[in-house]
Design a protein that fits this description.
0% of the residues lie in helices and 56% in strands. It is mostly beta strands and 234 residues long. A hairpin with a 5-residue loop joins strand 1 and strand 2. It has one domain: AttH-like fold. The strands form 2 sheets. Strands 1-2-3-4-7-8-10-11 form an 8-stranded antiparallel β-barrel. Strands 12-15-14-13 form a 4-stranded mixed β-sheet, with no helix packed on it. It has no helices and 15 strands.
Length: 234
């Protein structure tokens, strides 16, 4: 993975000249039986928020809100029955990731690509993300006339996840990753994260369908989240 070029405006905060900007955090258990995702994208004056808790043999707990007004502090996401926050404690080193909301408990993960109807389930993340390596530049995707800029970084996560009616989930230094992307495209669009495609995985899965028609169909492997093979990414 290449190091940063000198002309990149690389920092953890918002890039005001970018029409679209995104932060995504992910973590997983070492045995790949549990995975967590928390992300949000700024699209003009609207924020998209998505998150999930995916576990082997359990319903997918799926959260999306794609119509959240952007606040003065864009890292606080407040929608209907939703509070979430991605807070940078130390640039390129530490983030706090939290939410309190209702997840949709979905037995069949394919339903997450449709209306995502499921049993409303109170859930809360209280997680700390710590870097374990320097950030690396994301490679350009496709043959675009305008570059999508960004970086990714490996880390670990500590913290707890509360799901109503279940014992508290404690995460202690589990492997983690994060991505920060922005664009200089005046049309203000980019697709889901580009991840390795796999056919062999644990069966733990977390799909998301975004308002622009793109799909992120993620599956968990021992090396972390990957893209499920044989599904076209629109």
């Amino acid at each position: 993975m290449p190091a940063f070029a000198d002309d990149r405006d690389v920092h953890d905060g918002r890039h005001p000249s970018s029409p679209v900007e995104e932060w995504v955090f992910a973590a997983w258990s070492p045995d790949a039986s549990l995975g967590v995702i928390s992300g949000h994208r700024l699209v003009g004056r609207t924020a998209w928020y998505w998150a999930s808790l995916a576990r082997a043999g359990r319903p997918l707990l799926h959260i999306t809100d794609f119509e959240v007004p952007v606040r003065a502090d864009p890292f606080i996401v407040k929608g209907e029955a939703l509070w979430a926050e991605h807070h940078c404690d130390a640039e390129m080193e530490q983030w706090s990731i939290g939410n309190e909301t209702y997840a949709s408990a979905i037995d069949d993960a394919d339903e997450a690509l449709g209306r995502a109807y499921g049993d409303p389930t109170p859930i809360a993340f209280d997680l700390e993300w710590y870097a374990t390596a320097p950030p690396s530049v994301l490679e350009p995707v496709g043959d675009r006339a305008w570059a999508d800029l960004g970086y990714e970084q490996s880390g670990v996560v500590h913290g707890v996840i509360d799901v109503l009616g279940e014992p508290r989930l404690d995460l202690v230094e589990v492997p983690a990753h994060r991505w920060h992307r922005w664009t200089v495209d005046p049309n203000g669009a980019f697709g889901p994260l580009t991840l390795p495609e796999v056919t062999a995985h644990t069966g733990v899965r977390s799909p998301f369908a975004f308002p622009d028609g793109s799909v992120s169909d993620l599956v968990l492997t021992a090396r972390g989240w990957a893209q499920r093979a044989n599904r076209p990414v629109r």
